[in-house]
Amino acid sequence: MARPALEALQVQRLGEVLPHAYSHSALHRGLWDRAGIQPGDVDGLEDFVKLVPTFDKDTVRRVGAARGDPFGGLLCVAADQLSVLGSSSGTTGDPTPLPQQARGPLVHGIDRDFWELGARVGDAISYANFTFRAGHAAERFERLRLRPIFIDHEPAEVSALMAASRRFRPTVLYVINNPMILAIEAHFQKSGDDPIEAFSSYRCAVFGGEPMAARSRRRVAEWGLDIREMTALGDVCAAIECRERVGFHAWEDLVLVESVAPDGNDPVADGERGELVVTSLTERAAPVIRYRSGDIIELDRRRCACGRTHARFRVLGRKGDRVVVQGRILLPRDVWSAIESIPATSAGLFQIVRERPDADRLRLRVGFEDTVPPLGLAADVASAVEAAIGLLPVVELVTNEELLKQGPPHKIPRVTSS
Ligand SMILES: [Zn+2]
Question: In degrees, to the nearest 5, what angle opens at C-alpha 221 toward C-alphas 216 and 226?
Fold first, then answer.
């Protein structure tokens, strides 16, 4: 769909979802009443962005606690109207309930994604999805006339996955993550099977749930798998890379996507860093209107080489991990590769030390192997980082062992205040 027609459709759908949310959602009604606006005041996308207040997960928690409501004042339909009650993973707090109706945007978007992944009528599909979000969604496969092979998303199930791959010759593997890839690697080492032969029926595999480690990417490429990363589009639905691998495609007829200044309300230009803000256009169970996702993104609305006109975006990190140095927003991933490129610090163990919100110098605490750092290591790390981001950091060296004491095993907070 050409952009002007897409925007006209978004305006039409906003005209339906805004009165629905205002009438049925205590959270949205409360926010808009305080802002002194009503759905009828919004005339077009420009008004929408200017007038309608944003909210975030803290707002949902606050409204939920005040009302004793597990849905945080977002649920707009009676419980018997729901087909699935899933939840987020709860990685950074209590899991958020995700109530859904049949054929909501989550289901609808993934239907289309399956086509791009190469699934065709009659194909077998290896379906190892995280069930906490949306159950098994078995009815989808009947509708799409695909043959799902349900496998638990669980490293212990890898031998079942490989046996099913041989027997049914599935064309799509949906979805694997870093622990699954490690388990698959161990399976091949133990069994002596040929990975290329074992995966030869797959047109695509989908990676989701967390950022993909460089090591996992190399491994999967060796197995001959065409892998596409997937991310959440602000808890409304999923967004998957297309064959061009130039970011995650949003389905903009289902979800209105904005990039907004992380600490304010000004729109951020395409290609610059902003916070992903989403609005459900077709969801009626618990639509979110201008929900701040906490994801820092770069949005691109130009037509993609794959032919799609819907926006795509790169995810650069989480809002809570930002540091501002000389007015520039930096995230841990900006310096990660530079630090990994030096042999003594190749484990990529480091922290950004954020002493104040806006600093003059970037301060890094970087872990090194062994007990005594090689001569000139701090300067080497600093110049590698400077080459990557154009800012010379202050580097403090500590042993990897010392740094790992900062967190649970093999994981450390990437941004710290001291
Ligand atoms: Zn594309």
Answer: 105
CB atoms within 10 A of CB 23: 11
Report pLDDT for 302.
96
The CA-atom distances, in angstroms, between 377 and each of 285, 385, 393 are 55, 12, 13
Distance between CA atoms of residues 150 and 158, nearest Å: 12
Distance 117 CA to ligand 1 centre (A): 12
CA of 332 to the centre of ligand 1 (A): 27
Give the span between the Cα atoms of 298 and 310, in whole angstroms.
14
Contacts of residue 357, Cβ cutoff 8 Å, sequence gap at least 6: 324
C-alpha to C-alpha distance for 352 and 80, rounded to whole angstroms: 48
Ligand 1 centroid to residue 80 C-alpha, Å: 38
CA distance 336 to 213: 12
User: Residue 63, SS3?
Assistant: helix
Ligand 1 mean position to 250 CA, how many Å? 10
Backbone angles phi, psi at 155, to 5 degrees: -50, -30
Over the stretch 77-93, which tens digit does the pLDDT of each residue have?
A: 998 888 888 887 665 56
Cβ-count burial of 135 within 10 angstroms (0-12 exposed, 13-18 middle, 19+ buried)? Answer: middle
pTM more than 0.70: yes
- Cβ atoms < 10 Å from Cβ of 114: 22
Q: What is the pLDDT of residues 196-235, one digit of tens each?
A: 999 999 999 999 877 777 778 888 999 999 999 999 898 8
299 C-alpha to ligand 1 centroid (Å): 13
**Residues 76 and 18 sit within 8 Å (Cβ to Cβ):** no
Ligand 1 center from residue 249 Cα (angstroms): 7
What's the full length of the chain, in residues?
418
- In the reported structure, the alpha carbon of residue 8 is separated from the centroid of ligand 1 by a whole-number distance in angstroms of 22
**Residue 54 confidence class, pLDDT cut points 50, 70, 90:** very high
Number of other residues whose CB lies within 10 A of the CB of residue 289: 28
Structure tokens that stand for 110 in this block: 């993934």
Distance of CA 118 from the midpoint of ligand 1 (Å): 14
From ligand 1's centre to the CA of 276, what distance in Å?
19
Most confident of 70-74, 109-113, 140-144: 70-74
Q: How far is the CA of 231 from the centre of ligand 1 (A)?
A: 15
